[in-house]
Amino acid sequence: MKLSEIGEQGLLQILQSFCPSEIIGDDAAVFTTQPHQSLVVTTDVLVDNVHFSENTTSAFDTGWRSVAANLSDLAAMGATPLAITVGLGLPGDTEVNWVENLYQGMSSCLQPYQTPIVGGDVVRSPTKTIAITALGQVHPQQTIYRHTAQVDDAIVVTGVHGASRAGLELLLHPEQGLNLTASSQQKLKLAHQRPQPRLDVIPILKDIFKLNDSPFRVAGMDSSDGLADAVLQICRASGVGAIIHSTQIPIPDVFPTWLSPTKALEYALYGGEDFELVLCLPLPIATQLTAQINHAAIIGCIQVEPQVHLISDNKEIPSQTLTLNQGFQHF
């Protein structure tokens, strides 16, 4: 059955079944925030054959990924999620089952964080388009910004990089995985199809600062557009530079025996969509944080000189200065 057969009201009836009945039904949703918290708002737009494709992602996975991208942005600000809204642009010949699976993927990603879908909009469009706005809250003094990195801060990544890009390559070119076990292939594919937003890191980070009786100061963002992009964006916003050590960047276990060192580093730096957090913070705090999070690592430090230098101990990979034009660009 297609959307053109059930019409707008039929579609809305289906979509509203994924929303809390006590919130939806009016012109806007109303919910209560906690006292003394700042409201955090972020929006991501995904377009068919640009950000997702039926060749690599099912409708369920598309729903999951679209929500994960927004939740990751909230985590990058130090916020906890409150709710999301969903804007859909869909062709009339879209299968109803596709939309239902899309929302099931969204709901599954949201469920661990008890975050509801509280509304949105639907329009006819020649191309499938998903626009999600996520709402979160954070204490003003515990907000993570890009512009607060300081010289000598340690640079922490909360997990491996390059897995999502590797998974995408396996989905597009299955023959590239002939030397990998089935479980290794599946793990990399899932890293691309169902990324995990690192909201789990935020309470750990806040607890460490509290135990150390230190004022909360963290600069950061997520690595959705690539690890190199994240470090460069933070440095540019903070007016500083960085030194990154290539051998300290955590990568999937299979990379050294599957990919060349050059290709493994390319995936880690520029692959994107790993949705890990890249954080700049005092070294003692960074050391405690990495000790509590699997695969987290200190990959470098902030310096005065306003360039980002990659230091390599591998003869196949020259040390280099990183620039924004090497990574993903929307245009």
What does this entry look like structurally?
With 331 residues, the protein is α+β, with helices and mostly antiparallel strands. It has two domains: 3-140, PurM-like, N-terminal domain (60s Ribosomal Protein L30, Chain: A, 2-Layer Sandwich); 154-325, PurM-like C-terminal domain (Phosphoribosyl-aminoimidazole Synthetase, Chain A, domain 2), CATH 3.90.650.10. Helices cover 35% and strands 21% of the residues. It contains ten helices and eleven strands. It has helices spanning 3-16, 59-76, 96-110, 163-172, 182-193, 201-211, 227-238, 255-258, 261-270, 283-292; strands at 38-47, 80-90, 117-124, 129-138, 154-157, 219-222, 241-245, 277-281, 297-303, 308-311, 320-322. The strands form two sheets. Strands 6-8-5-9-7-10-11 form a seven-stranded mixed β-sheet, with helices on both faces. Strand 10 and strand 11 form a beta hairpin. Helix 1 runs parallel beside helix 3 and helix 2 (59-76) runs parallel beside helix 3 (96-110). The longest helix is centred in the first third of the chain and has 18 residues, at 59-76. The protein is globular and about 60 Å long.
